[in-house]
Structures are given as structure tokens and as C-alpha cells.
Amino acid sequence: MASKEYQEQDSPAANTTACRLATTAEGELVSKPSVVMNFLQALAAILLGNIVYFALYSSLPPLARHQPLHVDLGMALDFWFCLVAYGLIRTARKWR
Q1: Can you tell me the distance from the alpha carbon of 7 to that of 3, in angstroms, rounded to the nearest whole number?
Q2: pTM value?
Q3: Torsion of CA 64, 79, 85, 53, to 10 degrees
């Protein structure tokens, strides 16, 4: 079982990267809370961006509507909505 006591140690690739890993007292690798929080923020941004994009989908011009299995302006616009949502989430977290 993993202990609640964590200590930071240099990763084996510490010579080439500035990556640091958290380990338990038994030496098992564990995720830092910031990794989970970053994942949840990114997931929320993707969901929010897609909700906004698909809510506006019917009012978008045909060129801005994404066609499945194509790289087009609609995909870029969807990505932009997700990027804006991510920026808003990160900004809101820094204000706390």
C-alpha cells in the first residue's frame, strides 16, 4: 500500500529534463495533485469549448461548420473555443 508520505526525487532523466517525480516512502511513483488538476482543467476546457461550438453550430456559416474526417475551418474554430475556455479556466484559478 502506498504511504501518504511523499518525497520528491530526481527522475532518471534529470540530467536532460527538469522533471521531478513524487514517490512514496516505499519508492513507488505517484501522481502529484497538480497533474490531476491540470488534466481536469484541460478536460473541462474541451467540454466547455465543444458545448459552445455545438450550441452555435446552426448559426455558423457553412464554411465554419466542421465536416467529419476533414481538417477544416470548423475544426480550427472548435479548437479556438476550447483554447479560450482553457484560458478562462486558468485565469479564474489564478484569481483565487
Answers
A1: 11
A2: 0.65
A3: 30
